[in-house]
Amino acid sequence: MRLTCHCGASELKVILAEDLETARRCDCSFCRRRGAMNVSVRDGDLKVIRGAALALYQFGPRRAEHYFCSICGCYTHHRRSSNTSDFGVNVGGLEGVNPRDVDPVPWLDGVNYNPEIQGAD
Prior knowledge:
Mean pLDDT: 90
Distance between the termini: 22 Å
Strand content: 25-35%
Number of strands: 10
Low-confidence stretches: none
Helix content: 10-25%
Number of helices: 3
Radius of gyration: 13 Å
Order of helices and strands: EEEHEEEEEEHEH
Strand order of the largest sheet: 4-9-8-7-6
Shape: globular
């Protein structure tokens, strides 16, 4: 499945092992502001096709890697710190998928998530 940012400078190819079954939202301080629904993709199932414009953002313990397009600002994906062999990818960037059609999805309680005990996205 193809995933792009808004301007098309960043493109990924992803394989969703569980289709959209793992879609979720998070209310941690970062995800709440980002606002994107994400779905899980295994490390070997994500390939960056065009990524020169991708920028990395990290915060807190700096275990998670959050990527976004440095041109249009769209979040594309992040490597999870709780399981570094997993990524979360932006459902809104998946070709042919409207997040509105996937809702409702579960929410991860990121506000009360303790990365020192449980890992963090």
